[in-house]
Known about the structure:
The chain is an alpha/beta fold.
Amino acid sequence: MSLELRGIVKSFGDFSLGPINLKIESGERVAVVGPSGSGKSTLLRIIAGLTPPNGGAVFINGTDATKTEPWRRGVGVVFQTPALFPSLTVLENVAEPLLSRGVSKGEAYGRARDVLVRLGLGDLVHRYPAQLSRGQQQRVSLARALVLEPQILLFDEPLTALDPPLRGEVLPYIYEASRGRTVLYVTHDFEEATFIARRVVVIMNGRVVADGDSVEIFENPPSSAVAEFLGYSN
Length: 234
Ligand code: ADP
Ligand code: MG
Protein backbone atom coordinates (compact mmCIF):
# COMPACT_ATOMS: atom_id res chain seq x y z
CA MET A 1 0.00 0.00 0.00
CA SER A 2 1.24 3.47 -0.81
CA LEU A 3 1.45 6.20 1.80
CA GLU A 4 1.12 9.89 1.15
CA LEU A 5 1.23 12.84 3.50
CA ARG A 6 -0.30 16.05 2.21
CA GLY A 7 0.38 19.24 4.11
CA ILE A 8 0.57 17.60 7.51
CA VAL A 9 0.98 20.17 10.30
CA LYS A 10 1.05 19.79 14.07
CA SER A 11 2.17 22.04 16.88
CA PHE A 12 2.91 21.62 20.54
CA GLY A 13 3.61 24.95 22.25
CA ASP A 14 6.69 26.39 20.57
CA PHE A 15 7.28 23.34 18.43
CA SER A 16 5.73 23.11 15.01
CA LEU A 17 5.91 20.25 12.56
CA GLY A 18 5.34 20.69 8.85
CA PRO A 19 3.83 21.25 6.48
CA ILE A 20 5.04 17.78 5.55
CA ASN A 21 4.47 16.46 2.05
CA LEU A 22 5.79 12.98 1.46
CA LYS A 23 4.98 10.20 -0.95
CA ILE A 24 6.05 6.61 -0.38
CA GLU A 25 5.31 4.03 -3.02
CA SER A 26 3.83 0.65 -2.23
CA GLY A 27 6.65 -1.65 -1.10
CA GLU A 28 9.12 1.20 -0.73
CA ARG A 29 11.40 1.43 2.32
CA VAL A 30 12.20 4.88 3.66
CA ALA A 31 14.25 5.94 6.66
CA VAL A 32 13.36 9.15 8.49
CA VAL A 33 16.30 10.63 10.36
CA GLY A 34 16.88 13.76 12.37
CA PRO A 35 18.09 14.99 15.71
CA SER A 36 16.16 14.43 18.91
CA GLY A 37 13.11 16.69 19.14
CA SER A 38 12.81 17.24 15.38
CA GLY A 39 9.33 15.74 15.18
CA LYS A 40 10.04 12.22 13.92
CA SER A 41 7.89 10.40 16.48
CA THR A 42 5.09 12.92 16.08
CA LEU A 43 5.06 12.29 12.33
CA LEU A 44 4.96 8.53 12.86
CA ARG A 45 2.15 8.82 15.39
CA ILE A 46 0.14 10.95 12.96
CA ILE A 47 0.53 8.30 10.23
CA ALA A 48 -0.50 5.56 12.67
CA GLY A 49 -3.51 7.58 13.81
CA LEU A 50 -2.27 7.87 17.39
CA THR A 51 -1.95 11.67 17.25
CA PRO A 52 -4.37 13.81 15.23
CA PRO A 53 -2.71 16.40 12.97
CA ASN A 54 -3.81 20.06 13.16
CA GLY A 55 -4.08 20.05 9.40
CA GLY A 56 -3.34 18.09 6.27
CA ALA A 57 -4.17 14.53 5.39
CA VAL A 58 -2.76 11.02 5.44
CA PHE A 59 -3.56 9.01 2.34
CA ILE A 60 -3.23 5.25 2.47
CA ASN A 61 -3.45 3.60 -0.93
CA GLY A 62 -4.95 6.77 -2.35
CA THR A 63 -7.72 7.05 0.24
CA ASP A 64 -7.88 9.74 2.91
CA ALA A 65 -7.31 7.82 6.17
CA THR A 66 -6.91 10.89 8.40
CA LYS A 67 -10.08 10.07 10.33
CA THR A 68 -9.76 6.31 10.19
CA GLU A 69 -9.17 4.62 13.57
CA PRO A 70 -5.59 3.38 14.07
CA TRP A 71 -6.50 -0.31 14.01
CA ARG A 72 -8.33 0.04 10.70
CA ARG A 73 -5.45 1.63 8.81
CA GLY A 74 -3.48 -1.52 8.03
CA VAL A 75 -0.52 0.10 9.72
CA GLY A 76 1.71 -1.74 12.22
CA VAL A 77 3.98 0.14 14.61
CA VAL A 78 7.05 -0.97 16.53
CA PHE A 79 8.12 1.48 19.22
CA GLN A 80 11.42 2.08 20.93
CA THR A 81 10.28 0.32 24.10
CA PRO A 82 8.30 -2.89 23.75
CA ALA A 83 4.92 -2.41 25.39
CA LEU A 84 4.07 -5.98 26.38
CA PHE A 85 1.58 -7.16 28.95
CA PRO A 86 3.73 -8.50 31.82
CA SER A 87 1.08 -10.91 33.05
CA LEU A 88 0.54 -12.53 29.65
CA THR A 89 2.82 -15.11 28.04
CA VAL A 90 4.61 -14.33 24.78
CA LEU A 91 1.96 -16.28 22.86
CA GLU A 92 -0.90 -14.50 24.66
CA ASN A 93 0.72 -11.13 24.03
CA VAL A 94 0.95 -11.76 20.31
CA ALA A 95 -2.54 -13.30 20.09
CA GLU A 96 -4.10 -10.37 21.96
CA PRO A 97 -4.47 -7.98 18.99
CA LEU A 98 -6.36 -10.74 17.16
CA LEU A 99 -8.50 -11.75 20.14
CA SER A 100 -9.48 -8.15 20.80
CA ARG A 101 -10.68 -7.96 17.19
CA GLY A 102 -12.94 -10.96 17.60
CA VAL A 103 -10.75 -13.64 16.01
CA SER A 104 -11.45 -17.06 17.57
CA LYS A 105 -9.01 -18.38 20.16
CA GLY A 106 -7.90 -21.31 18.05
CA GLU A 107 -7.14 -19.17 15.03
CA ALA A 108 -5.55 -16.35 17.05
CA TYR A 109 -3.14 -18.66 18.88
CA GLY A 110 -2.31 -20.49 15.66
CA ARG A 111 -1.50 -17.29 13.80
CA ALA A 112 0.43 -15.90 16.77
CA ARG A 113 2.52 -19.05 16.96
CA ASP A 114 3.28 -18.93 13.22
CA VAL A 115 4.54 -15.36 13.48
CA LEU A 116 6.62 -16.16 16.57
CA VAL A 117 8.23 -19.13 14.85
CA ARG A 118 9.17 -16.89 11.90
CA LEU A 119 10.81 -14.50 14.36
CA GLY A 120 12.86 -17.30 15.91
CA LEU A 121 10.82 -17.29 19.12
CA GLY A 122 9.09 -20.65 18.72
CA ASP A 123 10.73 -22.06 21.85
CA LEU A 124 9.77 -19.10 24.03
CA VAL A 125 6.03 -18.87 23.45
CA HIS A 126 5.12 -19.85 27.01
CA ARG A 127 7.59 -17.52 28.71
CA TYR A 128 6.62 -14.19 30.25
CA PRO A 129 8.13 -10.94 28.94
CA ALA A 130 10.31 -10.48 32.04
CA GLN A 131 11.97 -13.83 31.31
CA LEU A 132 13.23 -12.60 27.92
CA SER A 133 16.20 -10.48 26.90
CA ARG A 134 15.44 -6.94 25.72
CA GLY A 135 16.21 -8.06 22.18
CA GLN A 136 13.75 -10.94 22.44
CA GLN A 137 11.15 -8.58 23.92
CA GLN A 138 11.56 -6.28 20.94
CA ARG A 139 11.08 -9.25 18.60
CA VAL A 140 7.84 -10.07 20.46
CA SER A 141 6.65 -6.51 19.92
CA LEU A 142 7.51 -6.90 16.22
CA ALA A 143 5.46 -10.12 16.25
CA ARG A 144 2.54 -8.22 17.80
CA ALA A 145 2.68 -5.72 14.95
CA LEU A 146 3.03 -8.42 12.28
CA VAL A 147 0.24 -10.67 13.49
CA LEU A 148 -2.30 -8.26 11.99
CA GLU A 149 -0.48 -8.55 8.65
CA PRO A 150 -0.08 -4.81 8.10
CA GLN A 151 0.82 -3.63 4.61
CA ILE A 152 2.53 -0.59 6.10
CA LEU A 153 5.07 -1.00 8.88
CA LEU A 154 6.36 1.90 10.97
CA PHE A 155 9.38 1.71 13.24
CA ASP A 156 10.20 4.34 15.85
CA GLU A 157 13.84 3.87 16.87
CA PRO A 158 13.36 0.13 17.47
CA LEU A 159 17.05 -0.42 18.26
CA THR A 160 17.76 2.71 20.31
CA ALA A 161 16.91 1.23 23.70
CA LEU A 162 18.98 -1.91 23.07
CA ASP A 163 22.62 -2.44 23.95
CA PRO A 164 24.69 -2.62 20.75
CA PRO A 165 25.20 -6.43 20.92
CA LEU A 166 21.44 -6.93 21.03
CA ARG A 167 20.82 -4.71 18.01
CA GLY A 168 22.33 -7.30 15.69
CA GLU A 169 19.92 -9.84 17.14
CA VAL A 170 16.89 -7.74 16.17
CA LEU A 171 17.93 -6.03 12.92
CA PRO A 172 17.76 -9.15 10.68
CA TYR A 173 14.16 -9.72 11.78
CA ILE A 174 13.27 -6.11 11.04
CA TYR A 175 14.77 -6.64 7.61
CA GLU A 176 12.84 -9.83 7.03
CA ALA A 177 9.57 -8.27 8.25
CA SER A 178 10.10 -5.29 5.96
CA ARG A 179 10.25 -7.39 2.82
CA GLY A 180 7.26 -6.72 0.58
CA ARG A 181 5.88 -4.03 2.87
CA THR A 182 5.82 -0.27 2.77
CA VAL A 183 8.19 0.79 5.54
CA LEU A 184 8.95 4.02 7.36
CA TYR A 185 11.86 3.59 9.73
CA VAL A 186 12.60 6.42 12.17
CA THR A 187 16.03 6.77 13.75
CA HIS A 188 18.30 9.57 14.96
CA ASP A 189 21.27 7.61 13.58
CA PHE A 190 22.12 8.25 9.93
CA GLU A 191 24.30 5.15 9.70
CA GLU A 192 21.47 2.96 10.99
CA ALA A 193 19.19 4.60 8.42
CA THR A 194 21.55 3.57 5.61
CA PHE A 195 21.35 -0.07 6.74
CA ILE A 196 17.59 0.02 6.41
CA ALA A 197 16.82 2.08 3.35
CA ARG A 198 18.39 3.74 0.37
CA ARG A 199 15.91 6.59 0.49
CA VAL A 200 16.44 8.80 3.49
CA VAL A 201 14.28 11.72 4.59
CA VAL A 202 16.04 14.14 6.94
CA ILE A 203 13.83 16.13 9.34
CA MET A 204 15.13 19.06 11.35
CA ASN A 205 13.04 21.41 13.47
CA GLY A 206 9.85 19.90 12.11
CA ARG A 207 10.74 20.37 8.42
CA VAL A 208 11.94 17.99 5.73
CA VAL A 209 15.39 19.34 4.84
CA ALA A 210 16.58 16.49 2.62
CA ASP A 211 14.92 13.61 0.80
CA GLY A 212 16.79 11.27 -1.48
CA ASP A 213 19.42 8.62 -1.90
CA SER A 214 21.41 8.22 1.33
CA VAL A 215 24.76 8.17 -0.48
CA GLU A 216 23.95 11.39 -2.36
CA ILE A 217 22.79 13.12 0.82
CA PHE A 218 25.92 12.00 2.62
CA GLU A 219 28.26 13.09 -0.17
CA ASN A 220 26.44 16.29 -0.97
CA PRO A 221 24.45 17.51 2.05
CA PRO A 222 21.96 20.23 1.04
CA SER A 223 22.85 22.56 3.92
CA SER A 224 25.46 23.06 6.61
CA ALA A 225 22.90 22.04 9.22
CA VAL A 226 22.43 18.69 7.49
CA ALA A 227 26.19 18.33 7.08
CA GLU A 228 26.64 18.95 10.78
CA PHE A 229 23.98 16.40 11.63
CA LEU A 230 25.74 13.86 9.43
CA GLY A 231 28.89 14.41 11.42
CA TYR A 232 30.93 16.67 9.18
CA SER A 233 32.91 19.41 10.85
CA ASN A 234 33.07 22.64 8.93
P1 ADP B 1 11.66 13.21 17.91
O1 ADP B 1 10.93 11.93 17.84
O2 ADP B 1 12.25 13.64 16.60
O3 ADP B 1 12.69 13.22 18.99
P2 ADP B 1 9.12 14.27 18.85
O4 ADP B 1 8.17 14.12 17.70
O5 ADP B 1 9.04 13.26 19.92
O6 ADP B 1 10.61 14.37 18.26
O7 ADP B 1 8.94 15.69 19.50
C1 ADP B 1 8.99 16.88 18.79
C2 ADP B 1 8.64 18.03 19.72
O8 ADP B 1 7.28 17.95 20.10
C3 ADP B 1 9.45 18.03 21.00
O9 ADP B 1 9.73 19.38 21.33
C4 ADP B 1 8.51 17.42 22.01
O10 ADP B 1 8.78 17.88 23.29
C5 ADP B 1 7.16 17.89 21.51
N1 ADP B 1 6.08 16.92 21.82
C6 ADP B 1 5.95 15.69 21.31
N2 ADP B 1 4.85 15.09 21.77
C7 ADP B 1 4.26 15.97 22.61
C8 ADP B 1 3.08 15.96 23.41
N3 ADP B 1 2.26 14.89 23.43
N4 ADP B 1 2.81 17.06 24.15
C9 ADP B 1 3.61 18.14 24.11
N5 ADP B 1 4.73 18.23 23.38
C10 ADP B 1 5.07 17.16 22.63
MG1 MG C 1 11.22 10.14 18.85
